[in-house]
Design a protein that fits this description.
The protein is an all-alpha fold. The chain has 2 domains: 4-74 and 179-242, no CATH class; 79-178, no CATH class. The protein contains 8 helices and no strands. The protein has helices spanning 4-22, 24-35, 39-72, 75-103, 121-135, 153-212, 216-222, 233-244. The longest helix is centred in the last third of the chain and has 60 residues, at 153-212. The radius of gyration is 32 Å and the shape is rod-shaped. 26% of the residues are buried.
């Protein structure tokens, strides 16, 4: 489904090109009568205006579709990232509890814990990696408070490493998808900007030609709206009318 800014512009394209087609004969005859320009010249101009606008619209719609499709691809990597982040958080919380009970809260700092376990996936990945590194050189600060229990750094490193590797991969996928979405967004915005220039020129010339041959109301309606970019004045009038209609009375 196209974005609203593109669908509004596509509607403007339809209105302007329909007005070009339906009034071509009248414009050609009127310009010949008033300005003496050859009919084939004016006819070629009108057809070129229509085809140029149609081409710009096609490019814009294609760029919008590409961007929407790219955004749709982002969901799976984000779900995977959040799932792996939750696994890392669970393991860190379990390790935190074990160290606190067995050796006391001050021992947490020797592993890199400081404050609450973060929620942000990137921060979780950084903390998890730091904890694994510290586990590799960790020594108990004293005897365990729990008889028969000693923290096993190798075991906890292994438990953390698996979700950390998966989280790191998921973060890379999310970052890649964001870069790709940024690229398609730039292309979409450039296509809209190019379309706006083509539309403004086409609709302005058409409006002037319609005015010249006496179609004043149609000339006003196909003119580019000053208040609503990407719309004809006729579209803008319809939007204003809808937004200003009073709500139905209750009862």
């Amino acid at each position: 489904m196209p974005s609203k800014q593109v669908s509004d512009r596509a509607k403007a394209d339809t209105s302007v090109r329909a007005a070009l087609s339906e009034n071509e004969k009248k414009i050609v005859e009127g310009v010949l009568k008033q300005l003496g320009l050859a009919p084939e010249v004016i006819s070629a101009l009108l057809q070129a205006m229509s085809s140029t606008l149609e081409s710009a619209t096609g490019t814009m719609v294609a760029a919008d579709t590409a961007h929407m499709n790219e955004l749709g691809d982002d969901a799976a990597p984000r779900v995977e990232r959040d799932q792996q982040a939750e696994r890392v958080a669970d393991e860190l919380s379990a390790l935190r509890d074990a160290v606190t009970v067995a050796y006391g809260a001050p021992a947490l700092r020797t592993l890199g814990f400081d404050g609450r376990t973060p929620v942000d996936p990137v921060q979780l990945q950084l903390l998890g990696s730091q904890v694994v590194e510290n586990l590799g050189k960790w020594k108990a600060p004293g005897p365990s408070r729990l008889p028969g229990f000693e923290l096993q750094p190798e075991l906890w490193s292994a438990k953390l490493n698996a979700p950390l590797v998966s989280l790191s991969s998921a973060l890379e996928s999310v970052a890649r998808e964001k870069r790709e979405a940024d690229t398609t967004l730039v292309a979409k915005n450039r296509a809209i900007e190019d379309w706006d220039k083509t539309f403004s020129l086409t609709a302005t010339i058409l409006s002037a030609l319609l005015e010249l041959v006496g179609e004043r109301e149609l000339a006003r309606r196909v003119r580019p709206s000053r208040r609503r970019p990407g719309m004809t004045q006729g579209q803008a009038d319809e939007v204003t009318q809808v937004t200003e209609e009073p709500a139905p009375a209750n009862g």
